[in-house]
């Protein structure tokens, strides 16, 4: 069975000012799967995500989403194609309520009554805290609840690709388990997911495929199961064993 890639980066270089951050990144994200992007701090993972989203532009190489070349597109155009991005800082509007944060992301709705009720119910099932704190200021939520809101906001409209930067960072184990369940459900619903993650347990439990970055390039890619089973490879690429 051949796997179709929904997202492909080929020879991508990214410069930020005088700094050359990405050095020819080749990355494939298979359609319908969850791909883990791993690597030590400073390996270029976040820059890769920001380059995909057009927040920084590749100085060389190409980024393709399906049959569309998105390399030179601007972020709003890329989002319109069905790609959602949850950055590491989550981008929550603290002074707005949970409901207002969700409404801002639901571009088709002018008010809360126009939001897709069935979709909201599905999101509440994934993240009960979003429903529980619906009318509370988002700034008052815990770190885990904010992360749930950030992901909920990204999927309030149907998306083909969900890109999330370190979803488990700073979260308690119980919340991490909740996140793992939610991402599993999202994958079952047909969403393709690309996750940057430092929590190896999280990566092992969720990943179908894995790409490991070092010094601005992908140095290993393959199945997560094979990577999980090879302690010597983990040690050499990440400096630790799963």
From TrEMBL:
| Domain ABC transporter as annotated: residue spans | 7-240
Key word Nucleotide-binding present:
yes
- CDD domains annotated for this entry? ABC_TM1139_LivF_branched
Gene Ontology MF, one: ATP binding
Q: Which SMART domains match?
A: AAA
Sorted alphabetically, the keyword list is: Amino-acid transport, ATP-binding, Cell membrane, Membrane, Nucleotide-binding, Transport
On the tree of life, the source organism's domain of life is Bacteria
Regarding protein family, the annotation reads: Belongs to the ABC transporter superfamily.
Name under which the protein is recorded: ABC transporter ATP-binding protein
Natural source organism:
Variovorax ureilyticus
